[in-house]
Amino acid sequence: MVVLGWSVERSVQEKKSATTYVASADAGTDISSSKENVAGMSIFGSASFSSATSSTDAISSIGAVVMDRLAGQYAQMQQAGTYTEEAGAQIAQDLAPLMRAEVSYRRFTKADVKTSSDTSYAAMLAYRLALQSTLKPLFKNTTPEYEIFGNYVQTKDASYLKELTEVAKNYKDAAASTANVAAPADAVVQHLAILNAMQEFAATLEQLVAHAEDPFASVALLRSYDQAERNMFTSFSGLYSYNAKKQL
Length: 248
Hints:
This protein is mostly helical. It has 9 helices and 2 strands, in the order H-H-H-H-E-H-H-H-E-H-H.
């Protein structure tokens, strides 16, 4: 438990030293073409093993799954006569990075995307202008999400969880508004990507709040956070590339 709890704080501290991009509300900023407008972006390692399904109950059971695995390793080492406290701690430390919770969220499909047959340069400009409006809720997110969670881990101040919940709501509000924008037919892939990335990121933040007191689930969800964060960065980069190519 101590090792896994420490892993939560270490993961947060590692992300504090990574390159991040925080939303800026400077006048005239183009939210669809600037990576600075996506809060908390960084490329960070993801896990290769999923220890739970997508439901909240499954995420809550991660601790039991881990403990079963630890117990099995402990029994094997005891039988072999190789167990030491140091070896046990190392097993727990090695196991933590392998956990990643599968977070469920509403996924948009092409059938959900409103489209326009106009794929002209003028249509792209109109589309970009519409996104500048629908993505405004992201301007409210001025602190990297992992930093907010890290502050909670260090202080246990519930106000940080409330703040994280508000951040998640901003992503959901932005996704809901953006879903009503008609995308040019040749931008459907990019449009769909940003919708689902915002949905996934919001859901992951909500699960971090819901399981903040569970060190096992928190470690697993921080790995999920890494992947959701990467998907956010990739999706907005794809949107920027679409806009840039239209200007060539």
